[in-house]
Amino acid sequence: MHKINRAIVLFAFGLAIATARADDFSDGVSYYEQGDFSSAIESFKAAATKGNADAQFNLGLMYLNGEGIDQDYKQALSWFEQSASKGNARAQVNIGRMYAKGKGMVSNHGIAASWFRKAADQGYADGQYSLGILYVTGTGVARDYNKAKELFQQAANQSNASAQYQLGLLYLKGRGVTANLVEAYKWFSLAGEYDDSEVFRKYVAAKMSKEDVAEAQALAKDWEPQKAAE
Fold first, then answer.
1. What is the assigned CATH class of domain 1-143?
2. How far is 134 from 142, CA to CA, in rounded Å?
3. What is the pLDDT of residue 228?
4. Which tens digit of pLDDT belongs to each residue from 85-116?
5. What global pTM score does this model have?
6. Which of 16, 19, 96, 132 could serve as a FRET partner for 60 with CA atoms 20 to 30 Å apart?
7. Which of 196, 208, 134 is nearest to 162 (CA)?
8. C-alpha dist (Å) from residue 207 to 19, 188, 203, 211
9. How much of the chain, in percent, has pLDDT values that exceed 90?
10. What pLDDT was estimated at residue 7?
């Protein structure tokens, strides 16, 4: 996985437990945090059947990961779709990832792109990042480094480390932007320990003057999401 030119492998299914807002849902969150996945499933189902989008999303994740129940991609997709229909951006991204990785269906990056776009249009960083990856690889959409840069920038402005890492690669390679080692170093620094950020940071530093490294470090130190988004 530690290579410059990776593609869809960058996608990862992350568990997210939303803030409790209803009795059954609250119980589900509590059971999950205690490691009682079977009880969590039952509570989330009760809330999900009442239309709770967060419960539908969490239930989809548990089916996807096989937590407290047999792994079932069909059920996962069904619950994600119900949640996504209510505008849940996390569910939209996870549907996109299922299509991108062929989880329970034939891989279809065109459909994946449409779901990532729904989430990206809501300003959701993971949706912006995931769609940006498709534009970099030209998978499911026409390759467009300028569009990828725009999407990564939007996600990076929300402190999304994966997008910050990708911005560093774009500035290093001069794709969608003019090659700029200071900017590349800055974004690799902001990405912290994500993936190969440290490796590339050292690689870029070896090609820079001490003054340029100092400038990049200062830019990274002074960077704030709110300022970058303005």
1. mainly alpha
2. 8
3. 53
4. 999 999 999 999 999 999 999 999 999 999 99
5. 0.87
6. 132
7. 196
8. 46, 14, 7, 12
9. 87
10. 36
